[in-house]
Amino acid sequence: MIDSLVALLWLSGSGFALLAALGVLRLPDVFTRMQASTKASTLGVGCLLLGTALHLGDFGSLIRAASIGAFILLTTPVAAHVIARASYLADVPLWKGTVLDERRRDTDRVAWEQPGPPPAE
Amino acid sequence: MVLESILLALAWSALQGEISLGNLLVGYAFGYVILVLLARGGVMPSTLWSRTVHAVGLALFVVWELVLANARVALDVVRAGEGIRPAVLAIPLDVTRDDEILLLSMLINITPGSVTIDLSDDRRTLYVHVMHMHDAEATRREIKEGFERRVKRLFE
Amino acid sequence: MLDVVAPITLAMLGVALLVAVVRLVKGPTLPDRVVAMDLLGVLVVGLIVVLAAWTGVRTMLDAAIVIALIGFLGTIAYATYVERGRQE
Fold first, then answer.
1. Integer Cα distance of B51 and A40 in angstroms
2. What is the pairing mode between strands B87-92 and A100-101?
3. How many domains does chain C have?
4. What residues contact C29, with CB distance under 8 A and at least 6 apart?
5. Residue of A87, A89, A94 to mutate when probing chain C, most C C-beta within 10 A
6. What does the domain layout of chain A look like in residue ranges?
7. What are phi and psi for residue B119, nearest 5 degrees?
8. What is the per-residue pLDDT across B54-66, written as a single tens digit (0 to 9) for each?
9. Predicted pLDDT of residue A116
10. How far apart are CA B48 and CA B3, in angstroms?
């Protein structure tokens, strides 16, 4: 019973991790790739950890698994924000299919909205 | 108040001589009852109960959103980014304190499909990159009423 | 049952690692590579977590904690570097 639950958790966890990696490969720009990679850390590793904790079952492993989980849950959003902010401020181009950029409108006072290319620098 | 309960739970477990899940839960329950009784007697403000309810509500909501968002992004990946409409949106903030803004942006970041990019200098606007923007107002409302309202209630 | 599932899980994580390496090599921008590195760290943590349960070597979980820590610090450091590169 527990074994099949562990198997399910592991398979779905690694499935999410694989999808996240494919997303990082296939999505068009840094910002969208970032979104895919947060998936690996939240649900992916979350499922794997839960499976491992169930399988090992003793208190020490439970505490370790919980602390890895808590740590990842706390650091993933911070890492995501820091990378996204750094890339945006470093003028990494947004994908050409991006429909709206309100920060640019607010800071540069340039209104740009698709359709139509962004104004030349 | 939640912090006090947790401290009481730890103290209880320490006194039992073993930190185990059972001991922690029993300790939390005891501490909670005592704190509520104290609040009834007018010794402490009675926010513990509503806080616990809001915290549990927020946690359940986040798990639900997490599963939904993961499914959505998984679908996008399978279709190789076909049909996504990314955008950088300005979200006007109602929350003002540091811890509220921090919690809100953590929640936005942890759900796949949205990443915070920047906070304006006057700390009134949060810029968020979202994967699917079909109607700017609708997306804004989704974030404000889904996450921000709950965060605000928790800190009240 | 787990003797069948664990190798499959490890294989899927291995493929994910390879895919992330492709993005790491391809770039094209520095932030893309940072995202790939971050993902690599998370995937390795997942790999170790499964290995720990399968082999029963519990100390591996401690290694996973350390790798998660270092991965996060690395990401923050790279991001600082990306931002500084903009100012120069």
1. 31
2. parallel
3. 1
4. A30, A87, A92
5. A87
6. 2-90, 94-121
7. -115, 135
8. 788 888 888 888 8
9. 45
10. 10
Residue of A nearest to C29 (CA): A92
Of B21, B70, B86, the CB nearest to A95: B86
pLDDT range class, residue C16, cuts 50, 70, 90:
very high
Residue range(s) defining the domain that contains residue C8: 2-87
Confidence tier at B127 by pLDDT (50, 70, 90):
confident
pLDDT for res A117: 47
Cα–Cα dist C69/B7, whole Å? 26
- CB–CB contact A103 B21 (8 Å): no
Closest in A45, A60, A79 to C72, CB measured: A79
Does residue A118 have a cis peptide bond before it, meaning omega lies within 30 degrees of 0? no
Write out residues in chain A with pLDDT < 70, as ranges: 106-121
Q: Do A89 and B118 touch (CB under 8 A)?
A: yes
CA B17 to chain centre: 33
**Cβ atoms of B7 and B34 closer than 8 Å:** no
Chains touching C (at least 3 CB pairs under 8 A) are A
A36: phi then psi, degrees, rounded to nearest 5? -70, -40
Note the pLDDT of residue B46.
Answer: 54
* Between C62 and B46, the higher pLDDT residue: C62
Inter-chain contact B115–A26, Cβ cutoff 8 Å?
no
CATH number for the domain that contains residue C19 = 1.10.287
A17 contact residues in C (CB cutoff 8 A): 12-13, 16, 42-43, 46
Contact C58, A59 (CB under 8 A): no
- DSSP symbol at B89: E
Closest CA to B106 of B76, B148, B53, B51: B148
The tens digit of pLDDT for each residue in C33-56 reads 888 988 999 999 999 999 998 888
Q: What pLDDT is attached to residue B23?
A: 79
Q: Which two tokens stand for residue B13?
A: 């477990």
What pLDDT does residue B3 have? Answer: 77
Q: Which of B112, A21, A36 is nearest to C47 (CA)?
A: A21
SS (H, E, C) C26-49: HCCCHHHHHHHHHHHHHHHHHHHH
